[in-house]
Amino acid sequence: MRNVILNSPKQLEKGLELAKDIKLKGKFDKIIICGMGGSALPANMLITYYLDELKIPVFSHRSYNLPAQADKKSLIVAISYSGNTEETISAYQQAVEKGFKVAAIATGGKLKELAEKNNMPIAVIPTTAKQPRFALGYQSAALLKILANSGAIEDKSEEILETAKRLNPTQSEELGKEMAKKLVDKIPVVYASSKLRILARIWKIKLNENSKIMAFWNYFPELNHNEMVGLTNLKGNFHFLVLQDKDDHEGIQKRMELFADLAKEKGADVDVIQIEGKNTLEKMWNCLLLSDWVTYYLAREYGEDPTPVKIVEEFKKRLNK
Fold it and tell me: Would you name the residues annotated as active-site residues?
């Protein structure tokens, strides 16, 4: 996993290259991205990156079949790292049967077979990432390129390439190692602003899958109106991680600081993490690289291999009996 983290910025360039020739023709009034788990994250990364620029709505679909919004004016992308995710396969098959415009992103599997059988476009990404959550660069960049080629979003390939060159994974490794020690035997709860809530969600997922522990997430200001009340009778070793961006609304930043003070008064541990970067993409990636290191070293603290997700594989076996 350490090698995957060190090489993850290179995935952005490779993902753009793998999808450079994929273009869906048509006048689209919505984008529907189908995926589960780590393969669903590129949709949210897209929404965050293009937050104030999207001219048509984007739907992240995490279930079987297609959502009710799907029609002939939809641009549909199915993402499955393995190519065998049954929920995503069902959505893809339905899109093909209905004659909708659909592209795919996968390493292979049934999704690749179906794409080739139906002569539909697919970006085949490398298997080197080992797990969907480690392939975020490949999947996100390929997704953005497909949508840009199809005229659904602005092409930001140059900005993506420039950002990838600036990213330095080793820069946050020591901080990640220090934070991991503080999280041993704790229940992490990760918070961010509404705008950057996908970062909190991905931190939570990586704590679950890499470190093999329970973790939770939410976002400001909504949590101040409900979840925060849980501090009243706080029990358990909670450690709050607040992801703060200097460009967050001043009201959000004030809420974060007040929450941190209140949580400490109630006996909880709190770390406010400053998100750094020249643009939204760089901020997201710097923040996620830190999450990689924290969860990697926390897994080591627990004596766990961060890569496999054995309980998920066992669940799938029981599901298919």
Answer: 209, 225, 316
